[in-house]
Amino acid sequence: MHSEKQLPCWEEKIKKELAYLEEISQKRELVSTEFAEQPWLMINGCRMLNLASNNYLGYAGDERLKKAMVDAVHTYGAGATASRLIIGNHPLYEQVEQALVNWKKAEAGLIINSGYNANLGIISTLLSRNDIIYSDKLNHASIVDGALLSRAKHLRYRHNDLDHLEALLKKSSMEARKLIVTDTVFSMDGDFAYLEDLVRLKERYNAMLMTDEAHGSGIYGKNGEGYAGHLHLQSKIDIQMGTFSKALGSFGAYVVGKKWLIDYLKNRMRGFIYSTALPPAILGAMKTAIELVQQEPERRSLLQTHSEHFRKELTYYGFNICGSRSQIVPIVIGENEKAMEFATRLQKEGIAAIAVRPPTVPENEARIRFTVTALHDKKDLDWAVEKVSIIGKEMGVI
Ligand SMILES: *Cc1c(COP(=O)(O)O)cnc(C)c1O
User: Fold this and answer.
1) What is the value of pTM for the model shown?
2) Which positions bear N6-(pyridoxal phosphate)lysine (predicted)?
3) Fewer beta carbons within 10 Å, N or C terminal of the chain?
């Protein structure tokens, strides 16, 4: 008989790994977060200025979005009951996809259940074993995972380094199917992709170009159609995805492109075929968000004014903001523990911002990532910058 209970080896392995994460200050814990009046939050009973959300235009708390969701529930129910190809394709889908296509000036569009699923699904559906993916090193994790799932050759070029990308393109055979993929606004550095150059390269090397507008949709372009729209490059980009989960205030994602591309995704994308359609409420929010974002350009300009002011102030105090030019403003701290301590001290002062650590960012580039929204007051931002700079000085960051 066994006298001592032996731990199964997988349990030991997992516990060891958790202990290791703890040791290197990378173990994550969930904290309960309640929304107060925007842009304030309640974390553990303390009221804090929210500099951590992707609710860039404030639509997550908007009464009109909430009403659209409630109305959709009353009309169509709580759940879609099946995937879209079975019987889950409730009438709101067609309305939202039509609004999407008009807004993005695209031939066709498709709603996908989340941004993560969109990147996983689109990339793994379009590419397979003998194809090649060229991906910016700072692209979102969902793009990396899509590339892995596709089993295509996955080449990562140095962040925004077009010479590196071109060298990689030159090396591969002209026959291979190629996809260049990039975030338009990078989620950790807050800088932009060089879309004009990427279009030039994709044309020269006969590749497809895919953009992820998760942090661009709603924010850039005359009608908030995204950063590609701002540069008038929408028609040159083969596959544009974006999300409704950030500036558009609710949840879910879209992809737009040529009709044949969207038809193909409907027929082959497993995450679309084998997953239940979105609840009607989400479609209600999407439809209203697409309308509001076009009707309310003043929110975009307010966001730009606030972001520019915030970046300028932090730079003035001597922080390294990683070349940010958007509403995403990181300050580089360095070591993981130091970034964690910085975030804790910010919380004590009433500021909610997150420490971003490897593997999300490179080693020794742990940072505090601030996100500015249209809802902030200039005086609140100034108050936050003052606190940030005091902590920065005390901790020897500036
Ligand atoms: C947030 C994000 C996603 C994922 O979108 P979800 O709708 O949250 O799943 C994809 N790409 C980028 C660049 C993102 O920032």
Assistant:
1) 0.95
2) 246
3) N
